[in-house]
TrEMBL record:
InterPro entries: DIOX_N, IPNS-like_FE2OG_OXY, IPNS-like_sf, Iron_ascorbate_oxido_reductase, Oxoglu/Fe-dep_dioxygenase_dom. Keywords: Iron, Metal-binding, Oxidoreductase. Belongs to the iron/ascorbate-dependent oxidoreductase family. This is Fe2OG dioxygenase domain-containing protein. Residues 219-320 form the Fe2OG dioxygenase domain. It comes from Ceratodon purpureus.
Amino acid sequence: MAIEVEREELSIAAAELSKALPDVVVTDSVVPEAYLWPKEELAHVGHDEYAGDDEIPVIDLGGLNGDLDETRRREICDRIRVALGSWGFFQVVNHGVDLALVERVQAISKKFFELPIETKELIDCTFEEDRLLGYGFSVANKDRTSRRNWSEGLFVDSPHVAGYSSTFWPEDHDIQTEFSEAMEEYIGAVGEFAIRLFRLILSSLGVDYPATESERFLPKEPALIRLNHYPPCPDPSLTTGLVPHYDGNLMTILHQGDVGGLQVMKDDQWHPVRPHPGAFAINGGNMLQAISNNLCKSALHKAVVNKDEDRYSLAYFVQAPNWDQVAPLPELVDAEHPAKYHPFTWKEYFEAVLASQVEKQRFTNELEHFEVK
């Protein structure tokens, strides 16, 4: 019963947090109190201060869709293993997803965010089973009801695409079709890429399996994506676009557009991620850290805002497969490398997330609940 109450409270908070930002951006020249964050949780580097941070790995996947020779494949896998082990994060270019499709989805995303706030709020952000769907953000912070991110977003999956498009543009069938077709095509294309990438990650860890067993490694469906908008802010030093957090899923595939704002934590320092034309940013999630027995890191990351430019991004969340239990893969456990985590279910993990929301301290990670002590 307690979990259900917290779930309801979070849904209400997510809806409330979506309401004020558009009005603030239009009418105010200062950052209101509701958007002010403690100094320790704010950026220490600007959204475009990339000097010295170009060591963030950028991996060329050219040839991934064809026949890679073994040397080239091993080189890619080695780079992925090192990137996930040290950063929990990397970028990929030549990934095989049509860049014209990415541009189409970015364009229709901008059309959505240009809608009146009353229209966008026709579908509030609420929990459905184990995921957020709809318009708004939930803030993972104990002060979530009084502190807000300088951003807005739309969570959507395949079953809801058509319903959302007809709700947002009830009289414009052309835009309905444009939104639905672009989103469905993007979900399909990035989903196929996610499977190829996941197999490369497993290979990088030395986990190879027969094709007949591949079904148990396919990501959970339906895929969940989030369209993000970070408007210009009068004083970016006082607020945040998205609070620091770990993703609970397997990994996230992000197209961050051409305006910087994504930052990743490494060695207790924030590193801004330079946008690369046509690239996807890949960050490992908690489920990947668990099944890899800590060979892969879950990346602590956040989004910051700037004073002059709108920033738009597309986040595709690769959900963990429908395993009965999540646990380190047997191939990665031996006497010298004992299991770092007890077996757990996604439901148990998700309930730990909900239960910790009210008391959550900064930068905590619910995966710690399942560590072998």
